[in-house]
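Extended Data, panel c. Modelled sequence:
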Amino acid sequence: MRIKILEGDGQVFRAGQTSSKRVTVEIADASGQPASGVAVTFKLAAGRFASGLASEVLLTGADGKATIYGIHWDEQPGPAAIEVVAVSGTLRAELEIPVEIAAATGGERLVATSGTSKKWLWISLAVAGAAGGGLFALRGQNTTTAGAGPVAPGPSTLPGPPQVGPPTITIGKP
């Protein structure tokens, strides 16, 4: 049995960030044919997989390939490796895929790596839209009606800018 690196050999990753780059290996039997159903273990010493663990076990498909991605690399830049171990019955093969963890600059750490920042962007836009709508409605209160003068501000007029409280979550029926 042998392991061939298809993607990931010599790649450069950013320290402290989660990478979307794939690492793909192909497992072949002694005759060079793709080996399906082989347990392939990927191990990291300088990061964690999406599961939060330092190792992941995958089974090869009919094409003999196993692909892993979503690695969160440690903060320490420098050379690193992804250890790959393939086991099928009593057969075993292993190798290391050399990679480089490059220092991340301050600006790169500001890039969102999850949907959380996008959620807050949408909430901010919704709040800004609601505030704009409220100001438009308040501005419309100073119009005159037939036979009457300007409408005096009453208790329904809010002093100062609109206030938005913390979001609430309702579980079950409201």
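The two ends are 60 Å apart (CA to CA). This feature is highlighted in the accompanying rendering.
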